[in-house]
Write a structure and sequence with these properties.
- There is one protein chain.
- With about 230 residues, this protein is mainly alpha-helical.
- It has 2 domains: about 60 residues, Orthogonal Bundle (Arc Repressor Mutant, subunit A), CATH 1.10.10.10; about 130 residues, Four Helix Bundle (Hemerythrin (Met), subunit A).
- The protein is built from 10 helices and 3 strands; from the N terminus they run αβααββααααααα.
- It has a 3-stranded antiparallel β-sheet.
- The protein starts with 11 loop residues before the first helix and ends with a helix.
Length: about 230
């Protein structure tokens, strides 16, 4: 394939987003090799464009690039897994506190609308949509709290959580549940930051405790099936 970018080719951020979504939805498993040639063919872009997207993903900790070996979806260690959940507890406590300080009716309405979508996906047993909406709930709190910086940090942490879950998930369902989310929204609506923080901490601990942080799970993937 010609390595010169085409003016009509997908932009780097779209390629980044497609791969990020596949990781966040646990379709791209940790350790999967991201072959430049195959990605370039799948996205109909140059390998240079693919390399740019992979470099951006490496900066965000989602991809590891090895010299003479290529790019691979990162494989967080057990210690990294614990650090990610620690960071999420700290950041999400701050976000909930900010949102509780000024719980606008429009913000609460958006959260409740999101909860309805989560419940619908859960009832339909649509696991892919449930996982996606679960992560988006936490990002919506960050957005409504008005912190662009913490939104970006949390976005990366949520994608790292997906990598961690893909490796260490036990037989339990580790997807966030709409019921626990609903309790958090109720506390935010009441402006009760103490209760909202306690519920959020319990919620994140519940997700972490459902993981088996002693064993690495078997995995296999095919880029053509995942991103084609």
């Amino acid at each position: 394939m010609n390595d010169m970018p085409s003016s009509t080719a997908l932009p780097q951020d779209i390629i980044y987003a497609r791969i990020w979504d596949a990781i966040a939805e646990r379709k791209l498993r940790p350790g999967t090799r991201l072959k430049e040639e195959q990605l370039a063919e799948l996205f109909t872009v140059s390998r240079a464009r693919v390399r740019q997207a992979l470099a951006a993903l490496e900066r965000d900790g989602l991809v590891t690039i090895y010299r003479n070996r290529g790019a691979f979806v990162s494989e967080p260690s057990i210690e990294e897994a614990r650090d990610v959940f620690f960071a999420r507890r700290m950041i999400e406590a701050r976000l909930v506190e900010r949102l509780c300080a000024n719980p606008k009716s429009t913000a609460i309405a958006r959260l409740r609308k999101h909860l309805e979508a989560e419940k619908a996906a859960h009832l339909a047993q649509n696991r892919k949509e449930t996982i996606h909406l679960s992560g988006q709930f936490h990002l919506l709190i960050a957005e409504l709290a008005g912190s662009r910086y913490l939104w970006q940090v949390l976005r990366d942490l949520i994608s790292r959580t997906s990598l961690i879950t893909a490796i260490y998930q036990s037989h339990s369902d580790t997807a966030c549940g709409p019921d626990e989310h609903g309790q958090i929204v109720d506390a935010i609506a009441q402006g009760d930051s103490t209760r909202a923080n306690r519920l959020m901490e319990h919620h994140l601990e519940h997700i972490e405790m459902a993981l088996d942080l002693t064993d690495e799970k078997e995995r296999s993937t095919d880029l053509r099936d995942i991103l084609g």
